[in-house]
Each structure stands twice: as structure tokens, then as C-alpha cells.
Specification:
about 20% helix; four-stranded mixed sheet; alpha/beta; 8 strands
């Protein structure tokens, strides 16, 4: 088994593409409008119409399916943006220049929970630095760099 893609339901596709493609540097690999009986059955919702855009990290890996429901619309739950909420809580990206990306995202007004922090212990000989920010819909995004311990 392997991970094929992760789904993020978004409120505004253009705003989300500006974040994932414009700021994080992912690339669009597929786009389609979803409608009809098949997607209604899959989603368990009547009258589904949605815009679906797949984006993928430039370094490869699992795709992200950004999905904007045009009908029926959904609602944001603010508590879902907290790190301790049950369920899938964040997506994590490994980057080569954590400080540079952090500075670029801060300059773009992306909300962060903290500046980059070093994990106080190595894991398998690797030292990790990371920080959390929120995407435009409140999804927690971890950005991290991993360095061999000296």
C-alpha cells in the first residue's frame, strides 16, 4: 500500500492555489469539475458540483486534491484549526531552506503558530527544525528541515 493523494476541501480555489502553488511552489497536475450521480454516491450528498485541482510538490511525493464544493456548500469549523483536535491534523513538507520559506510566507501574511523551532532530540541521527502555519482554510501545514546530527 502507498499514499496516492490527500484531500483538502477549500473555500476558495484561487486563494488556495495562490498558497499551495504560488507560495509553496507546488505544481498543478490535473483539473476537472465533478458532478453527477457517481460523485453524489461517493460523497453521500445530493446535488454535488465541485471544482477539483490536483497539485503536487516539486520534489515529487503524494498529490494533494484541492476540492471546492460549489454545491452544496460546506462550513468551516474553527476548532479544526487547533493542533489538538481529533482526526487528521496537519500535512508536513520537508524543505531545503526552512528559514527562507518561513520568511517568504511571513512576508505574504501567512499566519504562523511559532517561528522555526529545533526538536530537542535527534531521531535516527537526524535533527529536525519545524514550524506550523495555517493554509487559507485553517489547515495546519508543517514545514521542516532535516539535518544529520553532528
Amino acid at each position: 500500500m502507498r499514499v496516492n493523494h490527500l484531500n483538502i476541501v477549500v473555500g476558495d480555489m484561487e486563494r488556495s492555489l495562490a498558497f499551495y502553488v504560488g507560495l509553496l511552489g507546488m505544481r498543478v497536475t490535473f483539473e476537472v469539475e465533478l458532478a453527477g450521480e457517481w460523485i453524489e454516491r461517493v460523497a453521500g450528498l445530493e446535488g454535488v458540483r465541485a471544482r477539483c485541482v490536483f497539485v503536487q510538490p516539486s520534489g515529487g511525493g503524494a498529490r494533494f486534491e484541492l476540492l471546492q464544493y460549489l454545491s452544496p456548500g460546506g462550513a468551516a469549523v474553527p476548532e479544526d484549526a487547533l493542533a489538538n483536535t481529533l482526526g487528521l491534523r496537519h500535512v508536513a513538507f520537508e524543505v531545503d531552506d526552512l528559514d527562507g520559506l518561513y520568511a517568504r510566507l511571513v512576508a505574504a501574511g501567512v499566519p504562523f503558530l511559532s517561528e522555526p523551532v529545533t526538536v530537542p532530540f535527534p531521531v535516527a541521527g537526524v535533527r529536525k527544525r519545524l514550524c506550523y502555519c495555517h493554509d487559507p482554510d485553517g489547515v495546519i501545514v508543517e514545514i521542516a528541515d532535516y539535518r544529520p546530527e553532528r
